[in-house]
Design brief:
The protein has about 260 residues and is of the alpha+beta class. It has five helices and twelve strands.
């Protein structure tokens, strides 16, 4: 039977993570609302991530003294940065007498492939970048998480941002451990259909004792004039631009 027990990060990692997040927050614009990941919850493809303008930044923390074990690995950082068409960054951290701090000046970031310093604002442009399937899935997951909190009081969950891994979300429901298979669609496309994998997962011995659900999310452009687009003439979803969202609600995996 599945039990809702994601691996808990060590206290040392939490302290390092907190210091890194506070440092980045001090560099970002006031009221910055575009964190993609700033919670110490597994899985850890990246440790921290954010969007600035039309650019995405995925960050892996590294202990320069190599004493602290960091969850995840560089291959996972590469996977999410590549899938999302973002920047894979490393943030070397050092623990001193007063706790953890970035080991490098400025943003404290270096390119994971070249080792060169990364200055996020310098990489932002006015170019229109269409959201990738990874971004679509991540945005849909955020929508579901907000709805779970608002409508069902869910406060404990773990979300999988890799669109190729099922289920997308595990959470503590009113009757115990629960999971969600998530699908997202763009603009004027219909809501996603229930995938065949849903029935297989619902009947799997590994899911015994856990309640399964399906959720479909549709994202459409909220740009001026988007609602006037002709049917079948969908407008691209540009990264960083306003969106309308709609969801199906929680649909039980077991159809009556």
């Amino acid at each position: 039977m599945f039990t809702f027990r994601p691996d808990e990060p060590s206290d040392d990692f939490v302290a390092c993570f907190t210091a890194a997040g506070e440092h980045l927050a001090s560099r970002l614009p006031p009221g910055f609302p575009y964190w993609l990941k700033r919670t110490v919850t597994p899985p850890f493809l990246e440790h921290l991530s954010f969007r600035l303008g039309n650019q995405l930044f995925f960050i892996r923390l590294e202990d320069v003294d190599r004493r602290l074990t960091m969850p995840g690995d560089r291959s996972l950082l590469d996977r999410i940065a590549t899938g999302s068409q973002g920047h894979a960054c490393l943030m070397p951290m050092r623990r001193g007498a007063n706790g953890w701090r970035p080991d490098l000046p400025g943003w404290g970031l270096v390119d994971a492939y070249t080792g060169l310093p990364v200055d996020p604002p310098a990489l932002v442009s006015d170019a229109l970048i269409e959201m990738t399937d990874w971004e679509l899935h991540s945005m849909a997951s955020q929508v579901v998480q907000m709805q779970l909190a608002a409508e069902h009081g869910v406060t404990k969950l773990t979300a999988q941002v890799d669109p190729d891994i099922e289920p997308a979300i595990w959470f503590e429901g009113p009757t115990g451990p629960s999971w969600i298979v998530l699908r997202a669609s763009r603009d004027q496309e219909p809501f996603p259909a229930r995938p065949p994998v849903l029935a297989q997962m619902a009947q799997s011995p590994a899911m015994k004792g856990a309640q399964g659900y399906f959720v479909g999310v549709r994202l459409s452009s909220a740009e001026p004039g988007a609602s006037e687009q002709a049917s079948g003439d969908a407008r691209p979803l540009w990264r960083g631009h306003a969106l309308h969202v709609a969801w199906t609600g929680l649909q039980p995996a077991h159809l009556q």
